[in-house]
Amino acid sequence: MVGDRISAASRLFPSRGVTLLVAVRIAALDVGSNSFHLIVVQVTTGGHFEVLDRAKEMVRLGESSLRTGIIPPEVFRRGLDALASLCRLAERHQPDALIAVATSAVREAQNGGEFVRAARDEVGVEIQVVRGQEEARLIYLGARGTLNLAGRRAVLLDLGGGSLEIILADSRECYFTDSAKLGVIRLTEEWGASDPPTTRQLVALRTRVRGALEPVMARVRAMGFDFAAVSSGTAQALASMIQQDRGGKNGERDDARDEGPTLTVDALADLEQKLAGLTLNQRARLPGLDARRADTILAGAVVLRTALELGGARSAIVCESALREGIVADYIATHRPGMLLVEEFPDLRRRSVMELCRRCHYDEGHAQHVARLALSLFDQTRELHKDHSIRESDGELLEFAALLHDVGFYISPSKHHRHSQYLIQTHDMVGFSRTDVGMMACIARYHRKAEPPGESLSRTAEERHKPFRELARRARRRVRYLTALLRLADALDRTHGRLVRAVRCQVGRKTIELRIEVDGDPELELWAARRKGDLLE
Length: 537
Fold this sequence. Notes:
Blueprint: H1 2-12, E1 24-31, E2 35-43, E3 49-58, H2 65-68, H3 73-92, E4 97-102, H4 104-108, H5 112-123, E5 127-129, H6 132-144, E6 154-159, E7 164-169, E8 174-180, H7 184-191, H8 199-223, E9 227-231, H9 233-245, E10 262-264, H10 265-276, H11 280-284, H12 297-311, E11 315-319, H13 323-334, H14 336-344, H15 348-359, H16 364-380, H17 394-404, H18 416-426, H19 434-445, H20 459-464, H21 466-469, H22 473-491, E12 500-507, E13 512-518, H23 523-532
Helix pairs in contact: 3-5, 6-13, 7-12, 8-12, 9-12, 10-12, 14-15, 16-17, 16-22, 17-19, 17-22, 18-19, 19-22, 22-23
C-alpha cells in the first residue's frame, strides 16, 4: 500500500534538515480545486531532481463546493477514485515518499476533513491541507527551479480553480504573497452567465475581477518587478490557443532565456474578446483547448489579462513548474540531512545509528576512536567469545553502542550514560530487533559508573536495572562482555585526545596483556583503564 511506503519514508527521513549515490524517489500530489496533478521525481546529485513521470486527472473538486461549502457525494467519490488511480501510478515507481497537498476546495469545504480521512482510510494517502500563504510559498519554490531569477524580481500569478496566488519574489525570497478568491471554477459558478454571455454580464465579470485585484496589484506595482510569469493549466491552455490561433507567433519559447512560452496582454485581450462571443460548444471545439476547460477558460483569460494590465506588465512567461514541483523542492530542503545519510550510509542499521548520533551532536572524533578501539579489542579476544555466548554479529552491536555511548550529553552531562540509554531505547532504530536495541542501550548505559548487575538484586536495584533484567539470560551475558570492552576502549581515550593510536592484546591462560601505542603522555588513559578494566578482569 502507498500508506505503508509513506510510513517507511517518514522513518527514513525524520522531519528536519547530501550528493546522492543511493537514488531517492519522491512522488508529489497536488490535490487542486480543478485538477489533481502527480509528479514522480528522482533526486540527483546536489539535491536537484529529474522528472520520471507526470499525470493529471481533471476532477473539478471545487465544482459547486466553492459556492455551497460542501463537496457533493458524486464529486467526493470522483476525487477518491482519481486519488487511487494516481497513487497506483506513483506506486509503480516505488517512491521513497509520497506527499499530497490539498488547496482551496478541500480547505474551504465543510466536509473537507471527511475527504482527507477517506483518502487516508480508503486510498492510504495522508493529505496535508495548506492555507493560501503556504500554497503561495510552495508555488514559489516550484517556479524558482524553472525561472531565471538571477538578479531579477518576478511577479508570479498562479491561477487555480479556487484561487489566484500572487507572489512577488527573487531567487532568495518571497517579498509579498496574496491569495485572491478568483479561481476559474469559483468565478464561473458565481458569475452564472448565459451562453454566450451578454455584454452586461461580461462587464460585470471584468468589474468584479478588477475590483478584487486593483489594491493587490497596485501594491505589487509599487514594490516593483522585472518580469511577470503565469502558471497553471489555465495559463498553459491560453498560451496553446493563442499559438494555434496565431500560427506560433505568440506562445513561443523565449530562446534568450529558455524559460518557456510567453503570453502578451494584447494577445490575451484578443482571445478574451473571441471567447466572449462563442457558445460553450463552440469554445470546446477550439484548437489547443481541452474541452473540459471550455466553461472556465473565459474567466481565466479575464483574470490573467486584468492582473497583468494592473501590474503594468505587457507580457508574461508561462511557467510549467508550480505547486507539485514546489512540494518536491520543499521536501528535499527539509529532509536534506536524512537524504545525505542515505548516500553516506547505504546500510539501514548504520544509517539509523548515525542519524541519532548527528541529531544529538555527538563528539564524532571521540566516538569513532572509541568504536575503533573497541572493535580491535573484540577481534583480538575471539578465543574468549564462546565462553560468553558472543556471536560474530556482536562486533557490529559493540561498534554501534560505542558510537552512541555519549549521545546522552545532548540532554545533560550529568548522568549522561542513563540519558544515552533512554535516547537509544526511544529512537526509531530501523533495522534492529527489540533485543538488539535493548542490548545497545544497556551497553551504552554501563559504559561508566555502575557495571551490569549480577543475578541477585535488591528490589530497589531491580527497578534501577529493569531494562537490563528484561533481556534474556544469554543476552545479558553478551551485554556484560561487550560492556567490558567498551569501558576499556572509552578509558583509553579518557582525554578525548586520541593519544592511543592502537592497542595490542595478548590473551593468556589467566591474564590479558595490553600494549598500547601512543602519540603523547597517556597518564590519564592508563589511570582510567586500570579503574574501568575491572569488569573485563
